[in-house]
Amino acid sequence: MAATVTPPGELRTIPDDPAAIRAFLRPRSVGLLQGVEPATAKTLALHGLHTIGNLADVPLLTLQRLLGIALGRALHEAAHGHDHRPVLAEPIAQSISAEHRFPDDELDPVEHHRALLTLTGHLGAILRADRKAASAMALTVRYADGSTTTRSRTLPEATAHTFLLTRTADDLDVTLSLQRARVRAISLRAQGLRAADEAPRQLTFDPDVDKLLAIEAVADRARTRYGDGAIKPASLSNAAH
Fold this sequence. Notes:
Low-confidence stretches: none
Distance between the termini: 50 Å
Helix content: 40-55%
Structural class: alpha+beta
Shape: elongated
Number of helices: 9
Order of helices and strands: HHHHHHEHEEHEEH
CATH class of the domain at 102-200: Alpha Beta
Number of strands: 5
Largest sheet: 5 strands, antiparallel
Mean pLDDT: 84
């Protein structure tokens, strides 16, 4: 954080002293804290919590009621200068990507969507296996004439769950309006990767979401045991094609 707020060419040192750490942290924006995604920042702003000092002054139980138990505790600790994450000798890769190439230039939007399902399923499986989460996604479409169009979007919260990646990919697809476009290839890039345990999920109290997460966990175990093609969406089955 000190490096982020220090102008290029200058040097900033934060003494290893609780009072000095508090003095540095308190005026900073809550958005600088690890784990504060756009949706979390919006929730905090609605309650007047704009700085790390504001956050530090809120009781732990209050934060947990606002953000959930895990995220509330993590941000409470961070606001008081406590970070228990290990130092990693090797940096986490910033992105991973996957591409689907059509055998012929493809005009059918249904086939475009099937390609997106395949890509998000592949990326999600890799992220979960590597215990990483993506903060953003970029969709690139290559057309018959060789030109490309790219759209990107920041995710509401960092995730490795396929259904959330698919939702964002579908939104990006809609912005491209590919109904009659001759598409040669579609690629997806998961960006802003971080360790999955640093990306707590906001509680939704939505039983459908919990069901999707449970199904995804079962599917991951089946693929590990029987191979990648063991379980896939019905729309990707041969019958659907």
